[in-house]
Amino acid sequence: MSTTLKVGSVEVAGRVWIAPMTGVSDLPFRVAASRLGAAYVSTEMVACAELARGRPDVVRRAAVGEGLPLMVVQLVGRSPDHLAEGARMAERAGAQIIDLNFGCPAREVTGALCGSALMREPELAGELMAAAIDAVQVPVTVKMRLGWDDRSRNAPEFAAMAERLGAKAVTVHGRTRCQFYKGKADWAAVAEVKQAVTVPVIVNGDIVDGATARAALEQSGADGVMVGRGVYGRPWIAAQIEAELAGEAFDEPDAETRLAIALSHFRSSIAFYGERLGLRIFRKHLASYIENAPWPTSAEVRREARSTLCRLEAASEVERALTALWLAPGRRLAA
Asked: Which of 10, 53, 98, 225 measures 20 to 30 Å from 169, CA to CA?
């Protein structure tokens, strides 16, 4: 199987993609993951209406940055006009691929009748897709779930509609919206989507390593995989899975290398947001890095370290404490 995927006019140099994740895939994270070999890392989900109004936090989420191998912006919305304008803004900012979110299960998103709630309104969803596709020259893709619930699994029809309207790839999370993240992702169900379209299909859900990626590809027949929560604390995971799928050796980062990755990511976050906001936003990443630290220690020590470090209020304190913890396994930090 080829290690590249063609999305319209854009060639993605890998078939292991990193998902758009609110509060995770901001610009500092995307830079870190890209430097570690990820071929595709999307922005956080960007609300088009708030982006058009210039809301500062939403504009930050859409920050494309420079020097990334591929620039992907994910948009969500319910108004065709807003989605078209959001797509144009993303294209002007340098987006090479624009992804439309029809899969987010979060209550604040579905409560606004966006994200996966739109799978219950395929006619409106089609209008939204057409508005974005017609507004830009870059490829537009679609991300979805299997459906709203088990009684309305309409992903194959939804994907076929997206392709008819001009979408160049579809990503399917192997759960319904009502499942949220419970149970196991149904990779085999994604095979029906693969049979319904000719554009690349990406399978998503519960993919955390080479073994799960290989199983997801085999069961779904998909062209690639998308990693979500499996990337927490492991921004190198896309490159690792790519290597494992190809049967190649991959040297997982050792303790000192992981510490350097975490510190570099932290410093980028502070530089991007400023110290006060950067500290707060990075805490989710900090907890994940600690949880995935390579040294052997008890769950109690990990919890204690997360709690201590995530309460620190100065960047220099975080760096010192993280370094001390990382290089001295089992050490208990004073609060």
From this structure: 53
